Amino acid sequence: MISLGKTYPLTVIKVVDFGYYLDAKNLGEILLPRKHAKKIFDIGDEITVFLYLDSKDRPIATMQKPKAEIGQFAYLTVTETTDFGAFVDWGLDKDVLVPVKEQKRPMLVGESYLVYLYQDKYDNRVVASAKIDKFLDQTPAEYKTNQAVDLVIANTTDLGFKAIVDHSHWGVLYRGDVFQRLSFGQYKKGFIKQVRPDGKIDLTLQGGQETRDKYAKIIENYLTNNNGFSPVNDKSDPELIYQTFGMSKAAFKRTIGGLYKAGVIKIEKQGITLLKDD
C-alpha cells in the first residue's frame, strides 16, 4: 500500500502543461508539478518521487529528496516558531511542524534538533517530534555480531556516543573505539559489536569483511611505501596508530593479526615488517 511521507517509483499516466499525473495506486492520481520534475517525462515513464501534502493539504509528488521520511530520525533546523509549534527544514519547499506538545523544551529559530517524523492520525500531515524515546523500539533487538547497520549520532555520554540503530533502537559507540570526529545528527554506517544479555547494543564503526580487507590494504601499502617496515605495532599508543593508519587500535590489532596468520607480515618488538614473496 502506498502512503504519504514515503518515496516510491510511480508511473506517468497523464502529461499536462503544469506537470505529470502519476499512478499512486490506492491514493489515486497524484500530481508531480513541473517545477519539481528534473527533466521532461512521457506517459509510461517511471519516476522515483516523494509523496506528501502541499500547503492546501492536497497529496503531491516531488523529486526533491527530504532529509528524512516517516519513521525516520533526522537532525533538523528550526526556520520559524509559532504559538502552536516550530517549523523545521526537512529539505522540501514546505517545512515540517513540531507541535508544542512534541517539544522537550521550547525550540529556537536557527537551532537544530533531533526529531522523529510521523504521520498525524487526525489530518494525515507529516509532523515531527523531539520526544524521540517514545518512538524507539523497546523490544529486544535481534542483531548479529558484525551486522552492518545505519546509525544516527544522537548525543554524548560518559561512555562515548549514543546512536540510533536503523531508526529503531538505542546503541552505544564507546569512546575508545571512535577515532574520528562525530557530530549530532550525523548519518554513519556502523556495525553491531554485540547485543548484551540485558538487550543493550554495543556498536563499532569498523567491521565486516569489506572493512577488514580495506584496512589490510592500507597497512600493506604503507609498508610497501616505507621500505617494508613500520615502527608501529600492537603495543603502540592508540593515537599513534590512528595517526599512522587511520584506524582504532582494536581494528589495527585484528588486521595485523590476520596479516600475520596469512604470512604477509612479521610482528616484532620494534614494529611490523612486510615479508617478501619467495
UniProtKB/TrEMBL annotation:
SMART domains: S1. Transmembrane segments: none annotated. InterPro entries: CvfB_fam, CvfB_S1_st, CvfB_WH, NA-bd_OB-fold, S1_domain, WH-like_DNA-bd_sf. It comes from the Bacteria. Residues 3-64, 69-131, 144-206 form the S1 motif domain. Pfam families: S1_2, WHD_CvfB. Belongs to the CvfB family. PANTHER family: CONSERVED VIRULENCE FACTOR B (PTHR37296:SF1). This is S1-like domain-containing RNA-binding protein. It comes from Catenovulum adriaticum.
